[in-house]
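Q: Here's a chain of 389 amino acids. Please give me its 3D structure as tokens.
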Amino acid sequence: MTKAQIVGWAHSVFGKSAAPDTETLMAQVAGPALRHAGIEATDVDAIFVGVYNNGFSRQDFQAALVGMNHPALAETPATRFENACATGSAALFGALDFVEAGRGRIALVIGAEKMTSLPSNQVGDVLMSGCYRKEEAEIEGGFAGVFGRIAQSYFQRYGDRSGALAAIAAKNHRNAMDNPIAHMRADLGFEFCNTVSERNPLVAPPLRRTDCSLVSDGAAALVIADQATATALQRALSFRGRSQANDFMALSRRDPTEFAGARRAWAKALGEARLCLDDLDLVETHDCFTIAELIEYEAMGLAERGQGHQVIQDGVSERSGRLPVNPSGGLKARGHPLGATGVSMHVMAAQQLTGDAGAMQIPSAAIAGVFNMGGAAVTNYVSILERAR
């Protein structure tokens, strides 16, 4: 079986975009990604689109929108994926499976979301579609409230870790200062993140505003090719290991403080890669809320359960630490346009491995991990990337 490789990418600026819709956002990255890969649009065998939507826009049938701005792609088979906040990774894994099954040589993956056109209360309702509404629809604070409840459960079991959450927020905002596409390039500092104030109110106790990712617009794209095709191109990044693991959607059916699906996905991907966590040079992980990054430290194996606070307190996940986590600023500061997020995370990791991360660069980065989840650790994707050429 041929192995699929990343051969090119493109990324829009995340934030409140003047682009009116996902059609426009996708057009911003499709052409540049193909040019970065050195691929003609006519060489693309299939398009894989990740857009969550679910109410952000009345226009759907998102996969067909790619060809509207790129006539050379209008007749190319295109399919739309949706898997909550892991929508982008779902589209990427679909493209990888397509190429590795031998159904085509080249695939274009695009993730996009236009979130800021809706009032905040409507955004909150759309986000709740990623939860189990039968049981969780009435949780105060919406999607933030779901993670606030997870944080409450975690604190009750292991102690108040508000300081660790503030340190995670401060780290990721500090990292985003060096990321030109980040939504919020502002070094907020630990004291601001750790203090409830008029500018940093409680959103879903114990989570403060600085513990929550941003409502963002944006798009990112990847070009995937088989090994034979990739040998003739400028760059190639391989998937040393990758996995997807699911868990019960309802929080009532599992321990919400464990992220057991994330733990299984990490174990499977590292096992396939024949690596351990110490072999990685960086990780881009899904910090939709700071409590998520804290629990993910434990799920990936950086700490025992209940001890994730030690990772940030000891500086392990800092850019200069033993395993830098979210050197791009993460979802927390880079932004979290739902359909674009998984694709964006892989672009951020790819830039590190090719030495193209600019001021974000981790010296001599050779192997990177990516973790993207949908919902509250319901669907979990892990990729282990390395440079093939």
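Q: Can you summarize the key feature?
A: The mean pLDDT is 97.
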